[in-house]
Design brief:
Blueprint (H helix, E strand, L loop, with lengths): L3 E2 L6 E2 L7 H10 L11 H4 L3 H7 L4 H8 L7 H12 L2 H22 L13 H16 L8 H10 L6 H12 L7
Antiparallel strand pairs: 1-2
Helix pairs in contact: 3-6, 4-7, 6-7, 8-9
């Protein structure tokens, strides 16, 4: 059952019923868990929205808000997000190019040296993107809808910008027979 709340109106749509205000109150009494709010299904159905957001020069809050679509409690929606936003070649290339450009901007404007463990410096927006992609990876580590190959590709997107110890530990979980079954 898909639950969808439109925040602009008082009606909640379950895909099979449009609830009135009183229906909303009853659902909130009966359902013990929070009903997830979907502002839009576009991140799950439209390819390369992340690429457009990156190119538009959005702020950190908008980027974080968008990336939260990949860390919901629904595994199928998270897999759709990864498939539509992080897996297409154009999406991956735009992330790689953005992070490289962001690193160059950070070095040029901030004039700072690499952080500990030779992690290249990034601006706040670049660091937010890396942290958000890492969060998507971590929250979907046991997601059966996302393959090992896709997990490795997601991790490789941000490999140069995370601590090598963190990268090695996450890769070991994906590839070591002690931690996971192939």
């Amino acid at each position: 059952m898909r639950v969808q709340i439109n925040t602009n109106t008082a009606n909640t749509s379950f895909g099979m019923a449009k609830l009135t205000r009183k229906g909303n109150e009853i659902v909130r009494q009966l359902v013990s868990q929070d009903i997830p709010v979907y502002a839009s299904l576009k991140p799950y159905t439209t390819k390369n929205m992340l690429k457009k957001i990156i190119k538009a020069g959005c702020n950190v809050d908008r980027l974080n808000e968008f990336m939260k679509n990949g860390t919901t409690c629904f595994q199928d929606k998270n897999a759709q997000f990864v498939n539509k936003q992080l897996m297409p070649i154009t999406g991956r290339m735009s992330i790689i190019k953005f992070l490289a450009k962001d690193h160059n901007d950070a070095v040029r404007t901030l004039d700072i040296a690499p952080v500990a463990d030779n992690i290249p410096p990034l601006t706040a927006k670049g660091r937010a993107l890396v942290d958000a992609i890492l969060d998507v990876f971590d929250k979907n580590l046991s997601n059966p809808s996302i393959s090992r190959k896709k997990g490795i590709k997601v991790l490789d997107l941000i490999k140069p910008y995370i601590n090598s110890k963190d990268h090695i530990n996450r890769m070991a979980i994906l590839s070591d027979k002690l931690y996971s079954i192939k």
